[in-house]
Amino acid sequence: MKNILILLTVLLLLPLTADGQNKSSFSAREMADVRVATPGLFAKGNHIYLHLDSLKDHEYAFPLPGGKVISAYGTRGGHSGTDIKTCAKDTIRAAFDGVVRMSKPYYAYGNIVVIRHANGLETLYSHNFKNLVKVGDVVKAGQAIGLTGRTGRATTEHIHFETRINGQHFNPNLIFDFKERTLRKECIKCTKNGSKIVVKTHTSDSWVAQSKK
User: Quick check: 125 and 113 in contact, CB under 8 A?
Assistant: First the structure.
């Protein structure tokens, strides 16, 4: 009986990832590669929803407060994220609560941090001078996770910020208003269409019906 109580205590104290898994359950590939599917993400259907509209103010943070966009998503022949600049060694903040899936030097990205969030969203922060978190760390929105730099293929100190679903990047402007540095408090619908994920703002049928009256 005593041994059972000890075991239950240990299990309750084990830190969890954003999707309820033990933080050590990341596979070798999940810890090594940016583009990797989230296990079980679309297991219950072809649609998932990111309810940004229900987040409280302390549950999100702009990744580089005071920063301005120097290269937008989709520019330069298909830029996979948004480049934000302030000054060298400025503090990079976690956009949402989550668990660190990657933290390492990674090819042209330089020093990179990838955070997996509870709703299936992943955020990526790269070219960092220094990473302040390691794989498996549970982080809170607004927590310092790195310092801006120019590691990898970069010509100036900044962060390259990406948003991904199931390993595929999509426009971060669906998540943040980069001019105002605020969260877009909307519902985002992610649809699995073959090997691709289609991400767009979701408007409920009831709202559409009301707006037509």
Answer: yes
Q: Name the strand (E) or helix (H) holding 105.
A: strand 98-105
- pTM for this model (two decimals): 0.85
158 an active-site residue? Answer: yes
Residues 6+ apart with CB under 8 A from 3: none
Residue written as tokens 């299936």?
120
Of the listed 158, 160, 169, 202, which one is catalytic?
158
Cβ atoms of residues 99 and 78 within 8 Å: no
Q: Per-residue pLDDT tens for 1-27?
A: 545 444 433 333 333 334 444 455 899
Do 162 and 124 form a contact (C-beta atoms < 8 A)? yes
Per-residue pLDDT tens over the stretch 62-121 = 999 999 999 999 887 778 999 999 999 999 999 999 999 999 999 999 999 999 999 999
Is residue 126 within 8 A of residue 158, CB to CB? The reply is no
Give the pair of three-digit tokens for residue 171: 């426009």
d(C-alpha 124, C-alpha 147), whole Å: 14
